[in-house]
Design brief:
alpha/beta; TIM Barrel; Rossmann fold; Immunoglobulin-like; 3 domains; six-stranded parallel beta sheet; 15 helices; 31 strands; Beta-mannanase
């Protein structure tokens, strides 16, 4: 693990940067090296406030090896085309010394500009195209022994050559290496990751190793797992593009679902992996998905949310527009052409201005590292479900209701918490018996448990939940239900459970009186049961989180909050506003209120006895309306931040 300054790994730190290919050439920057253009590129990016660049030594340019063959295709010799490999360390690794000198020049330029580099060492996949050395074409890049041999040699030499350069912040395994080839088991992915990270650390144990992967899962059946990447890497990564991520491309980009995507996915990885996690690629993919102005609103709110939830930074994809390039992948993929921070004429777009403004604002704060937000709940993701979809909906609903949570997978140790959420239980093996009994014991000791149902089986169930299932059947019509808490709601749920109350209280019922939402005391705690797959239905439904006519499903989660013995001293009321609470010392807390909507929002805040407003860190201080109650207006896609102080010890 890194022994250098922990810019990337320290909790509460936040770095701002982008992914960089030279403005004139994109992926051909190394074979078409233009020193003055690269210098000017970096100068412009540094001048606008960026701190970090993620850069990519394109694999076939840096290791341009060819395998010559003899009769019947028998492998004979590795060369640079027809040229013998040099009889030195670079030649042994199959590395082109000219390319290494160009990378060193890039690092030197970055150092003079005050920029740090995250190096995606094994860049064999980029923007929808596979890039591999000629000698390795046609092989499974991740499992073939010959390919693995040359990968290790390349990585070992590259890190050895560059490890003393002060501009290098971290080693990234490469850009989305899990896209380079298909593997048949998670053990293969684990072993490849082990080999590459071990090779890096053997040469440079001082810097963090970054995964560079995306599309990970906690599920044991997944090939690329969050837990496996966390075992070998110091930093995990997300690439939260709404357009390509399941459940995220349903609403406008400047509304709560899309804005919270990067934060939710990054916390999903960080909590389950137990490692710092960085959104190292984020972008709108150009003007076809959002205007420049709305893209700026989007990134401003993402920055505020990521910072408030300890997501370590944001790297935009990418530095420059690439619409002038006629080679693949730019010729193939329209989404790769107009997604830069600067135009072809080097005109900064509003997103770049927002990145610079945010860094300037951070540097003016009275703290260097934001203390972690207080969290009141643990969301347990289980087997036989879409873990990401369930996690995402749960994260949005909890933010709308006013509490923060962390994630765990059902196979992981259960942390202590005042509240546990087990949403959308599905299948007969959702959670192991020993973990389920442990969870029930936590409730007996005083915790609150919420369970929602997606046609799953739990045992024991009836006795702790205070109900008795009479029948189970498939539905053919929409489920309507009502409650004194949230009024009348409806969902298209596939399964009906007919419940008899055996000690539980009904919080919501169908028109025929059948309970769908119950609460039951269990030991010193309480269990809430919702017999519909709330989270999975909502995560697949456009408009349900932001539309002014949307049903207030978030009030179901507000009912959960009312049963939590919370650490927080503040409450909010508007579902389009998220709130985090950060202890600065024993008597001072920072309240962050983020407006996740494209219109200004009014908010009513209440504080516990003995707390009063302090100073504003962003925006206008709330105005007192009554004892313990304040009102404020939060600008569209922005935030207000202020301290509160305890007046009574």
């Amino acid at each position: 693990m890194s022994t250098q300054e922990p810019l990337l790994t320290q909790s509460g730190n936040f770095l701002i940067g982008c992914n960089y290919w030279a403005s004139h050439a994109g992926t051909r920057m190394w074979i078409d090296w233009q020193d003055e253009i690269v210098r000017h590129d970096l100068q412009v990016l540094a001048r606008h406030g960026l701190q970090v660049l993620r850069v990519f030594p394109l694999w076939p340019d840096f290791q341009p090896i060819t395998l010559l063959r003899a009769g019947a295709g028998t492998p004979k010799e590795v060369r640079f085309g027809e040229t013998l490999l040099p009889e030195d360390a670079a030649g042994f690794a199959g590395v082109d010394s000219i390319m290494m000198s160009r990378f060193k020049r890039l690092a030197d330029l970055a150092e003079t500009m005050g920029l740090k580099l995250i190096v995606g060492i094994l860049t064999g996949w980029m923007s929808g195209r596979l890039f591999v050395p000629p000698a390795l074409e046609g092989r499974n890049i991740l499992s073939d022994p010959f390919a693995r041999l040359w990968q290790v040699r390349f990585i070992r030499f590259f890190v050895r050559e560059m490890k003393d350069h002060p501009a290098i912040l971290a080693w990234d395994l490469g850009n989305e290496c899990n896209c380079m080839a298909q593997l048949s088991s998670p053990e293969e992915a684990w072993e490849w990751t082990s080999a590459m990270t071990t090779t890096i650390r053997a040469e440079d144990p001082t810097r963090p190793v970054v995964s560079g992967m995306h599309s990970l899962s906690p599920d044991p059946a997944a090939i690329w797992r969050i837990q496996d990447q966390a075992e070998w890497n110091d930093v995990l990564t997300t690439h939260p593009y709404p357009y390509w991520t399941p459940h995220c491309d349903l609403d406008p980009i400047n509304t709560i679902r899309t804005i919270l995507h990067s934060t939710a996915e990054t916390r999903f990885y960080a909590d389950i992996g137990g490692k710092p996690t960085l959104p190292e690629e984020l972008g709108t993919l150009g003007p076809f998905l959002a205007s420049d102005r709305i893209a700026a609103d989007f990134v401003r709110t993402c920055l505020l949310s990521l910072w408030a939830h300890d997501c370590h930074g944001l790297l935009w994809w990418c530095a420059f527009d690439q619409a002038h390039l006629d080679h693949a992948p730019y010729d193939w993929n329209a989404c790769e052409r107009e997604l830069g921070l600067l135009t072809l004429e080097r005109t900064p777009k509003p997103v770049l201005q927002e990145l610079g403004n945010f860094r300037h604002w951070l540097e003016g704060l009275p703290i260097h590292h934001l203390p972690a937000t207080l969290k009141d709940a643990v969301c347990i993701l289980s087997h036989d479900q879409d873990q990401w979809g369930v996690a995402f909906a749960t994260f949005i609903l909890s933010n709308q209701a006013g509490f923060d949570l962390s994630f765990r997978f059902a196979d992981q140790p259960l942390p202590s918490a005042p509240c546990y959420l087990l949403p959308c239980v599905r299948g007969q093996s959702a959670i192991a018996r020993h973990r389920w009994l442990q969870l029930l014991d936590r409730v007996k000791e005083g915790a609150t448990l919420y369970v929602s149902y997606h046609d799953g089986l739990l045992s024991p169930f009836n006795e702790p939940f205070g109900v008795e299932i009479q029948t189970r059947s498939h539905r053919s019509q929409t489920t309507h239900f009502s409650s004194d808490i949230f009024g009348e709601l409806s969902l298209d749920a596939p399964i009906r459970l007919e419940l008899a109350l055996k000690g539980a209280k009904a919080l919501a019922v169908e028109p025929d009186g059948n309970p769908v939402f119950t609460i039951h005391p269990y030991g010193k705690g309480k269990i809430l049961f919702f017999s519909l797959p709330l989270e999975m239905i909502l995560v697949n439904s456009p408009g349900v989180f932001y539309d002014s006519k949307a049903q207030p499903f978030w009030k179901i989660y507000r009912a959960i909050l009312e049963e939590i013995s919370s650490q927080k001293i503040s409450r909010k009321s508007n579902p389009q506003v998220g709130m985090t609470e950060h202890p600065l010392d024993e008597t001072t807390r920072l309240i962050i209120l983020i407006n996740y909507s494209p219109s200004s929002q009014s908010e009513l805040i209440t504080l516990s006895d003995g707390w009063e407003l302090g100073q504003s860190w962003r925006g206008k201080l709330p105005e007192q309306k009554a004892d313990h109650a304040w009102t404020c207006t939060i600008p569209a896609t922005d935030a207000i931040e202020f301290t509160v102080k305890r007046s009574i010890l």
